[in-house]
From TrEMBL:
Cofactor(s), names only, from the UniProt record: Mg(2+)
Protein name from the UniProt record: Exodeoxyribonuclease III
Organism of this sequence: Luteibacter jiangsuensis
Domain named Endonuclease/exonuclease/phosphatase: residues: 4-248
Class of enzymatic activity (EC top level): hydrolase
Signal peptide location: none
Family, per entry: Belongs to the DNA repair enzymes AP/ExoA family.
Amino acid sequence: MKIATYNVNGIRSRLPNLLEWLEREAPDIACLQELKSADRGFPIGAINDAGYGALWAGQTSWNGVAILAKGVDPVESRRGLPGDAKDTQSRYLEAMAHGVLVGCIYLPNGNPWPGPKFDYKLAWFERLLRHAQRLLDTGQAVVLAGDYNVVPTDEDIYDPKHWRRDALLQPESRDAYARLLAQGWTDALRERHPDERIYTFWDYFRQHWPRDRGLRIDHLLLAPVLAERLKDANVDRWVRDRPKASDHAPVWVELDMGTRKRSPAKKTATKKAAAKKAASKKAPARKA
């Protein structure tokens, strides 16, 4: 199973790129962020024609998230992050599809730092931490996918010194992300590429894309039951090179949803049991 996240940066203006990506890469589930469209402007007809069912939470000109599922309609479980009834920004959507519970995240950017937008970012992150722990405690197959607007470490950006005053690199942002991982989630892209400079976002300024001066801010976090099924994870960089591209590229994970992998301890116990059984067959029978 392939699950992806993609900040489209305007679904109506980037629709041709989105449809091309869906046809070429065919993810089973795709989380989209920054739709920048009211609900009525979501191109559900084109999405359906591409073979996908969809749920979406739009917002005029800003924010907006969606979950697409190949061949089925996602079953909504939550719209909006719990913890603040006054928060009306469309940044979180949760649904079940193909046996996996997916949370689609567009975490606040937080700039300018310091200021009220950064305070909102941290407060939103605390709500996410509480909800993520509840999801983890269920033991379900859960993926939290999206644009987290956090550069986890200096290894996740081309040159951190030029971004030190940006909300994406602040110690509080990084600490919140680290606490999320500490709950037991696996950062799939970093798990598969532990030592590689790998980016998901290149802004439109100063030729950052041609010069590969990027940031890693789009993440797919896997609950333990899925982390043990992780086969691969990567970035579809070719999408960032398309005409009128989003400043993000899609990120994806591939999961082995077949036979569940056994832990090393269970494998060792099974081997010992098999060896004992084989030895008993070879041993001569005792005379009465």
